[in-house]
Write a structure and sequence with these properties.
The chain is of the alpha+beta class. It contains 12 helices and 10 strands. Strands 1, 2, 3, 4, 5, 6, 7, 8, 9 and 10 form a 10-stranded mixed sheet that branches. Helix 2 packs parallel to helix 8, helix 7 packs across helix 8 and helix 9 crosses helix 11. The chain starts with a helix and ends in a 13-residue tail after the last helix.
C-alpha cells in the first residue's frame, strides 16, 4: 500500500524520480573525453491490462478494434566510446491521444513543435545541457535513420557550443551546387579506405566477412521543398558500402551525417565505430522489457506506470552496467559495483562462511557467482553472463545480502549481550 501511495502522490512524476540519476550521469560524463548520447524510441504494450486508464495507441489500428494500447518512450543513454553505459540523460514518456492518432497525412502542415518527432530535438537539447556542464568532454548525440530530421541538424549547427550530432541518413537529400542527390554524390567519391567487418549469422544468411569501402566528404544540403525557408546546412558525410557482396544477400550500407569534421580515414572509421555503439540502447530496452518485465506492471493509471517506469529504468541501467563492466574490465575489484556486504554475503552463501576472503575479489568472479544464482552455468561455451541471468541473480542477492546484514559476523544481533535464558543445562 505504501508503494501504491507513493506512485500516486501528486508530487511524484517520472522527471522528479530521475533527476538525481541525471545529475549522477552528468558527473560520470565529466570524467570522460568523449561520450555518446544515444537516443531512441520504444513502446510498452499494456493491452492485456484493460483496466488501466489513460493508455494510447502504440501501433496500427485494426478494423475490429483500437489496436495495441500502451505508452511511448524516447530516451537518451550516455555511453563511453567503448560502449560502457554511464546512465540516462533524458527520458520522455507519453500516451498518444487516440483522437489525434492516424493523422499522419497532416504532418507536412504542422510545425515540428507540434509533431511527435520533436522528441529528437528535446533530447538533443538535453545532451547539449550535459555538454555545457562538462566542458572537458565532447558529447555526441547519436540517432538512427528516424533522426534524419532537417530541423535537428539546423538546431545542432545553430548551437556551436552544444553537443555534436551523428545520424544515419534516411533521406536522399539534394546536395547544393549541382551535385545531385546525397547517395549518388557520395557513391561517386573515391574510396578512401577499406575495412573488413564480421557479419553475424541471421535467419536468412550465414555468417560472413564483408569488405566495406569507406568514402567521406563535406556536403551542403538543401532544405526540403516544403521547408524552403530554412537555410542550407553544411555537414560531413561518411558512406560505407560493401564491396563484392554475395548475390544472395543485401549488401551492407551506412550513410552517416555529422557536424564533426571528417578529414582523414581515421576520422571516418571513428564515426563508424561510434555509430556502431548505438546498439547499446537496443540492449537497454530489451533489459527493461525482458529483465524488469515492465510490461507486466498492473497499475490503475498511465501516470502511475510512468512513475514505476522511472524506477525500472535505473534498475535496468545498473544491470546493463554490470554486464558491460564484467566484459570491459573484469579484473578490477568487485567494489566497482558491489558493496562490501553484498560480495561477502554472496560468497558466504555459495562457498561457505569460512571462505570469505579479506580483500575484495575481482569483478568477474563475483559477477559470475551472482549470475549463477540466476541460472548461469559458467561452462566454457557459455561465454560471459547476460542481462537475464544477472537480473534474476541480483534479485536473489538482495535477500542474501539483507540476511548477511541481519545475521552475519558484523551484524548488530551478534554484538548483543547474552539472552536472559542461560544455555547452562543446570539452569533452573
Amino acid at each position: 500500500k505504501a508503494a501504491y501511495r507513493w506512485l500516486t502522490h501528486p508530487m511524484i512524476n517520472i522527471q522528479a524520480v530521475l533527476q538525481p540519476h541525471y545529475e549522477a550521469t552528468t558527473r560520470r560524463t565529466s570524467e570522460q573525453c568523449v561520450v555518446l548520447a544515444v537516443q531512441d524510441t520504444t513502446s510498452f504494450n499494456y493491452s492485456a491490462h484493460v483496466a488501466t486508464e489513460g493508455l494510447g495507441p502504440i501501433g496500427s489500428t485494426f478494423p475490429g478494434g483500437p489496436g495495441p494500447q500502451g505508452i511511448m518512450m524516447h530516451d537518451t543513454m550516455a555511453f563511453t566510446v567503448d560502449g560502457l553505459p554511464l546512465g540516462l540523460v533524458d527520458v520522455q514518456a507519453w500516451a498518444r491521444d487516440p483522437k489525434e492518432f492516424g493523422k499522419k497525412h497532416t504532418r507536412y502542415k504542422r510545425p515540428i513543435e507540434q509533431k511527435e518527432s520533436a522528441k529528437w530535438l528535446h533530447s538533443f537539447k538535453a545532451a547539449s545541457a550535459v555538454q555545457a556542464a562538462c566542458s572537458n568532454t565532447k558529447v555526441v548525440s547519436v540517432g538512427d535513420r528516424e533522426a534524419d530530421i532537417y530541423e535537428l541538424f539546423a538546431l545542432a549547427l545553430a548551437q556551436p557550443k552544444g553537443a555534436q550530432l551523428l545520424v544515419r541518413a534516411e533521406h536522399d537529400r539534394l546536395v547544393k551546387d549541382g551535385h545531385g542527390r546525397l547517395f549518388t554524390h557520395m557513391s561517386q567519391q573515391p574510396i578512401a579506405a577499406e575495412r573488413i567487418v564480421d557479419v553475424p549469422r541471421t535467419n536468412k544468411s550465414k555468417a560472413r566477412s564483408a569488405t566495406l569501402g569507406v568514402r567521406f566528404a563535406p556536403v551542403r544540403l538543401s532544405a526540403p521543398r516544403r521547408k524552403s525557408k530554412l537555410e542550407p546546412i553544411d555537414l560531413w558525410a561518411v558512406f560505407a558500402s560493401e564491396i563484392d557482396a554475395p548475390n544472395d544477400v543485401s549488401p551492407l550500407e551506412w550513410m552517416l551525417l555529422t557536424t564533426l569534421e571528417v578529414t582523414t580515414s581515421e576520422d571516418a572509421f571513428e564515426k563508424l565505430d561510434w555509430y556502431a555503439k548505438r546498439w547499446g540502447i537496443e540492449v537497454f530496452h530489451k533489459t527493461v522489457k525482458s529483465g524488469c518485465r515492465i510490461e507486466e506492471r498492473q497499475l490503475a493509471t498511465e501516470p502511475r506506470l510512468e512513475n514505476c517506469l522511472a524506477i525500472d529504468l535505473v534498475v535496468a541501467w545498473r544491470i546493463l552496467l554490470l554486464t558491460m563492466l564484467g566484459r570491459h574490465d573484469p579484473d578490477q575489484p568487485c567494489t566497482a559495483f558491489f558493496e562490501e556486504h553484498e560480495w561477502k554475503a554472496v560468497i558466504a552463501f555459495t562457498k561457505g562462511p569460512g571462505n570469505v576472503p579479506e580483500t575484495a575479489p575481482s569483478l568477474r568472479e563475483v559477477t559470475r557467482i551472482v549470475a549463477g544464482l540466476g541460472g548461469f552455468l559458467g561452462r566454457k561455451a557459455d561465454g560471459e553472463p547476460g542481462v537475464k541471468s544477472l537480473w534474476i541473480g541480483l534479485q536473489r542477492l538482495d535477500t542474501i545480502s539483507a540476511s548477511w546484514l541481519a545475521f552475519g559476523p558484523e551484524s548488530p544481533a551478534r554484538a548483543r549481550s547474552p539472552t536472559s535464558v542461560s544455555r547452562d543445562p543446570g539452569y533452573g
